Amino acid sequence: MKHIWSLLLTLIISANSFSQDIFGKWKTIDDETGKEKSIVEIYEDDGKVYGKIVEILTEKKKAVCSKCDGDKKDQPILNMIIIEGLEKDDDVYEGGTILNPENGKEYKCRLKIEEDQDTLQVRGYVAFFYKTQYWRRVN
Q1: Is the residue at 53 inside a domain?
Q2: What number of other Cβ atoms are within 10 A of residue 120's Cβ?
Q3: Strand 92-100 to strand 105-113: parallel, antiparallel, or no bridges (unpaired)?
Q4: CATH no. for residue 130?
Q5: Is residue 97 one of the residues assigned to a domain?
Q6: What is the mean pLDDT of the chain?
Q7: For 108-126, how does the pLDDT look when each residue is reduced to its tens digit (9 = 90+)?
């Protein structure tokens, strides 16, 4: 019986170690229209998590961030880093920001993989107010 429990525990630990992480490409979905908007690549750099728009799926392929501030003002949205400085905390990534290039506003950000491993919960928030989108993994 002791060996069965040991084997079961080993299998559970192995299954968890094979679960996918947030890194890779994700298709953004407009939470109001349900339409696909872009592909964001999420990657790690120097222990922090970032995301940049690597493809635009709408007719706005050459759009610029006219409402952004600072060095992103009037820069092309394609290849723009919109997720910056997140760190892993248990099963979520947080502590950084996400930029909405449509309105130029930056929000605190939290990312979390859903149980199906192919859906990413993306939450932008200010204080207790938040908005959540669900992005789909690009294979």
Answers
A1: yes
A2: 23
A3: antiparallel
A4: 2.40.128.520
A5: yes
A6: 88
A7: 999 999 999 999 999 999 9
For residue 5, the Cα-to-chain-centroid distance in whole angstroms is 37
d(CA 35, CA 88) in angstroms, rounded, equals 29
Residue 32: pLDDT band with limits 50, 70, 90: confident
Confidence category of residue 65, pLDDT binned at 50, 70, 90: very high
CA–CA separation, 1 vs 96, rounded Å? 47
Say which residue, 91 or 18, is predicted with more confidence: 91
Q: In this structure, is residue 85 part of a structural domain? A: yes
Please report where in the chains the tokens 């605190």 appear, as a residue: 108
Q: Classify the phi-psi angles of 92: left when phi > 0, otherwise alpha if psi is within -120 to 50, otherwise beta.
A: beta
Q: What is the pTM of this model?
A: 0.83
Q: How many domains does the chain have?
A: 1
Nearest to 27 by CA among 122, 135, 120: 135
How far apart CA 28 and CA 41 sit, in angstroms, is 10
